[in-house]
């Protein structure tokens, strides 16, 4: 190889690095630009809130199992869970869907039939939660009839919200995301963050802590217990 060839190869190599640095600023030799780890997209935010709901559904399922087996249940298991549903899911999460997600889909003529069903289920869920809280008293849990009524309410809530949240995660949210520009996503992300910070009883992280306490109290916190033998 001649000296001219060697010089040319060095020039091309150096130029290639320069182009890479220009195209991928801050990403050299596999070191990517560090993003703000606290940033959560609006749809991811809604989906992780569904994670809180799903853990409550597991609590509801365990309480229902204990009622059917005529085992002891404590009123605070139910009231604590239903209060999280009312304050964090119904009064916050679902209100965000109703204010920001559903109207945008309806305006675009997307998934309008699904939105109609989801709105009806929000209203039905609030009625069931109110009934659950009414029945979940120490005195009410002593009577066989009221225990059965409570179990029926918990069962109907779980039956509705398992497919409800799954359909939103797999169909509704991806369709909504595709309608928004990056600028709109950023604005909505900031709006969701501000609203969550203003919640009187804490946001997502706090709710995860509260649900974990309920799971520990009722004996279903250990994930390994759900593993088939």
Q: Would you write up a description of this structure?
A:
The protein is mainly α. It has one domain: nmb1532 protein domain like (Four Helix Bundle (Hemerythrin (Met), subunit A), Up-down Bundle). The protein is 76% helix and 0% strand. The chain is globular, with a radius of gyration of 25 Å.
Overall, the morphology is globular
The CATH topology is Four Helix Bundle (Hemerythrin (Met), subunit A)
Give the CATH H-level superfamily.
nmb1532 protein domain like
Helix content: over 70%
* Count of spatially separate domains: 1
Q: What structural class should be given to the helix and strand makeup?
A: mainly alpha
Average pLDDT works out at 88
Give the SSE string.
HHHHHHH
Beta-strand share of residues: under 5%
The CATH architecture comes to Up-down Bundle
Low-confidence segments, given as residue ranges, are 6-37
The biggest beta sheet, please? none
């Amino acid at each position: 190889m001649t000296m001219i060839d060697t010089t040319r190869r060095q020039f091309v190599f150096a130029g290639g690095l320069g182009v890479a640095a220009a195209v991928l600023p801050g990403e050299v030799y596999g070191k990517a630009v560090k993003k703000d780890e606290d940033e959560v997209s609006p749809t991811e935010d809604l989906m992780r809130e569904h994670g809180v709901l799903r853990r409550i559904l597991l609590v509801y399922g365990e309480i229902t199992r204990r009622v059917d087996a005529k085992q002891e249940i404590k009123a605070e298991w139910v009231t604590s869970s239903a209060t999280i549903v009312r304050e964090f899911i119904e009064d916050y999460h679902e209100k965000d869907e109703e204010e920001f997600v559903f109207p945008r889909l309806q305006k675009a003529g997307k998934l309008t039939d699904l939105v109609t069903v989801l709105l009806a289920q929000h209203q039905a869920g609030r009625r069931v939660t109110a009934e659950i809280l009414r029945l979940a008293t120490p005195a009410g849990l002593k009577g066989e009839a009221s225990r059965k009524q409570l179990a029926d309410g918990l069962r109907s809530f779980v039956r509705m919200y398992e497919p409800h949240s799954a359909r939103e995660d797999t169909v509704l949210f991806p369709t909504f995301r595709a309608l928004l520009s990056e600028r709109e996503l950023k604005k909505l992300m900031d709006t969701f963050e501000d609203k969550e910070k203003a919640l009187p009883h804490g946001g997502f992280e706090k709710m995860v802590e509260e649900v974990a306490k309920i799971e520990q109290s009722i004996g279903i916190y250990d994930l390994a217990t759900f593993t088939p033998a």
